[in-house]
Amino acid sequence: MRHLLDTRTLAKDDALQILDIAEDMAATQQREVKKLPTLRGKTVVNLFYEDSTRTRISFEAAAKRLSADVINFSAKGSSVSKGESLKDTAQTLQAIGADGVVIRHPASGAPARLASSGWIDAGVLNAGDGTHEHPTQALLDAFTMRRRLFGGTDGTGGRGRDLDGVSVVIVGDLAHSRVARSNLWLLTTLGANVTFVAPETLQPYGARTWPVTVRHSLDEALREDEPDVVMMLRIQSERMHAAYFPNEREYARNWGLDDERFGVLPERTLVMHPGPMNRGLEISSTAADSARSTVLEQVANGVSVRMAALYLLLSGERTDNA
Ligand code: NCD
Questions:
Q1: Exposure string (b/e) for 221-235, b if CB count within 10 Å is 16 or more?
Q2: Which of 39, 98, 105, 234 could share a disulfide with 110, CB 3.0–4.6 Å?
Q3: Which has the closest alpha carbon to 148: 37, 24, 268, 29?
Q4: Which is the closest atom of ligand 1 to the Cα of 173?
């Protein structure tokens, strides 16, 4: 694998390899000294054109725990605000000798452009591009599901397994969500059954041609789909330039995981959220802070999954056909 740009074209074997290596990485993170020498001498640049807390910190921690040198670049406060193009920025990174570039960008397709441009030899990892994809988020979500559902009592098993037959209901602002898209492709590849729940205005364009059950009613999905996992997504107000639902109270009442809906969820059902959460809107605090919630586990697992991805892409010699 040379780049990690999406999950839509990620082969099942490659996905399982990342998840299994992430298990090995997670085991090393239990040690007192968490640092491995694997990427010593390599340089990873975090190129963030959009705000981020978890993803950015997580990639930084992952690269540092593999002993890479990490350069953090944020568009704010850089020459990007002076109008510098992606091409010039990429050529600058090439000149300083970047081996890996982790890129988050508001434009869908920016990481693919960077990977295929010839401007740079580095391995490119997509950390979220527009409404398109966020592959490492989907991988850490799948890793979290596999551990919780098949991991045994210590949660570290499940190695080698796919997610055959697992029912995942994804709820919320699907139209703007790269997390929903990346999860759909990866989960489908791993054998899970996915349902999208949102008002029609928040369903992604084209969803009816995808391998997903589309529903408008959360109560119906909870009843009919017997979910093993309910994944709540953030209402992305910053990407909304029109009214997609009447008001927040109405949204929470119809599509929120409120205390009442949480109260009748079966004991085994996991509650997931990629963060950042709008507490009281798409998820109640009772649900978010419960033992069935994996919100913080997702963050912790994110480091292991990104260590695995960086390791697979950047260790060894990089050649054009590697
Ligand atoms: C998501 C993102 O930025 O795509 N967050 C994340 O990476 N943990 C989802 C969001 O912003 O709501």
A1: bbeebebbbbbbbbb
A2: 105
A3: 268
A4: 12
pLDDT tens readout for residues 133-146: 999 999 999 999 99
Helix axes 295-314, 12-28, angle to 10 degrees: 110
For residue 175, the CA-to-ligand 1 centroid distance in Å is 13
- Of 158, 182, 142, which is closest to residue 9 (Cα–Cα)? 182
- Name the DSSP class of 271: E
Distance between CA 87 and CA 51 in Å, rounded? 21
179 lines ligand 1 (CB under 6 A): yes
Cβ neighbours for 130, distance < 8 A, ≥ 6 positions apart: 105, 106, 107, 108, 109, 110, 178
CATH of 12-133+300-314, one of 3.40.50.1360, 3.40.1570.10, 3.40.50.1370, 3.40.50.620: 3.40.50.1370
Mean per-residue pLDDT for 143-170? 93
Give me the residue spans of the domains in the chain.
12-133+300-314, 135-295
pLDDT digits (tens, 9 = 90+) for 300-317: 999 999 999 999 999 976
Question: Ligand 1 centroid vs 276 CA: distance in angstroms?
Answer: 7
Q: Is the CB of 254 under 6 A from ligand 1?
A: no
CA distance 217 to 18: 34
CA–centroid distance, 273 to ligand 1, in Å, is 9
DSSP state of 61: H
Using CA atoms, how far residue 185 sits from 11, 16, 42, 125, 139, in Å, is 10, 14, 31, 17, 11
Which CATH superfamily groups domain 135-295?
Aspartate/ornithine carbamoyltransferase (3.40.50.1370)
Look at residue 75 in the predicted model and tell me its pLDDT.
79
User: How far, in Å, from the CA of 313 to the mean position of ligand 1?
Assistant: 23
Which pLDDT band holds residue 157 (cuts at 50, 70, 90)?
confident
Contact assessment for residue 180 and residue 196, using Cβ atoms and an 8 Å cutoff: yes
